[in-house]
Every structure is written in structure tokens, then in C-alpha cells.
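Entry 12.
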Amino acid sequence: MVKKVWAPWRLSYILGESKDKALGPKRPACVFCHAQKGSPNLENLVLFHGKYSFVIMNKYPYANGHLMVVPKRHLADYSRLEAKEHAEMGALLAKSVKILKKVFKAEGFNIGMNLGEVGGAGIKDHLHYHIVPRWVGDHNFMPVLADVRVMPEHLEDSCNKLIKFFQKLKR
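Predicted 3D structure (C-alpha cells):
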């Protein structure tokens, strides 16, 4: 018997729409610039604000706990990052990995950046690191046979678990 896996929240991403009432029917010019304006919370999915960068959950994750470390400055050119931004982003990557290991018992990680449209960047004008937690057998046959990723936990539940740990970090 074939079971159906529902991921209705992905449709707004596919269609380029936003169901966020605060944003209206259109996305803001830059989702990262918009998200960083408020305090860390469930609505904007921001977990931590540093001085030069911040940590945000991916609204359309590849795996539970999929985070991004983003510079506060709006820029697409990696070579324009300043040393202080590199340093803080690197520290936040390390702290994020530590928290994801603790909270989700992640066994491995994919960490990287997609730069430019041809490089696979979904948001090409504001660079960001992806941190994708991995587990043995986490994606099994579903992506191959059904082009579906199974998310075992709701995004809000993941955010509520993680934000407690990020609130303990010093700026």
C-alpha cells in the first residue's frame, strides 16, 4: 500500500507566494533583510542575532533543523565579506553545529553556500550558509522514488526546541 506524504506548506514556495499575513501576498525585496528586523521568534524563524550576522531556520528545509547563518549586510559577493563578518559567521556555524548535535542528535552535517543563480542559490542577492543536519538513513528512498523529503517534525516544534539554546549564546 502506498502512503501519501503531505507537505502543503511547500506550495507557497513553489508558486512564489507568501501566506504570511504580515508580508502580504508578495515577498519582501529580501527575506533575510526583512527577517532580521525583529527579535528572535517563531514568526520570523530567527534564532540568534550577532553583531554582524544572524542564525535563521530555513522555512523550506531539506531536513529537520536546517539552519542558515546570514550576514546582516545585504550582499551577494562573498569576496566583499569583511574579516569580522567571516569570524562571526564561522563562530555561529560552529555553535549551530554544537546545538544541533545536542538537540537533534545529528550524526553529520552538510554545510555550505550556493553562490549565484547558476550556483544553485535560491536567494541569490543575500549570501548565506546552509547547515543541514544528517542522520544515517535520513532520506532513504523517498527523494529518489517519490521526489519527496519526509520531515518528521513540524518547523514550529523544531524552532521552539532550538531557540532556547540560541538564547543562551552571548552576542
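Annotation: The two ends are 51 Å apart (CA to CA). Residues 64 and 153 are 7 Å apart (CA to CA).
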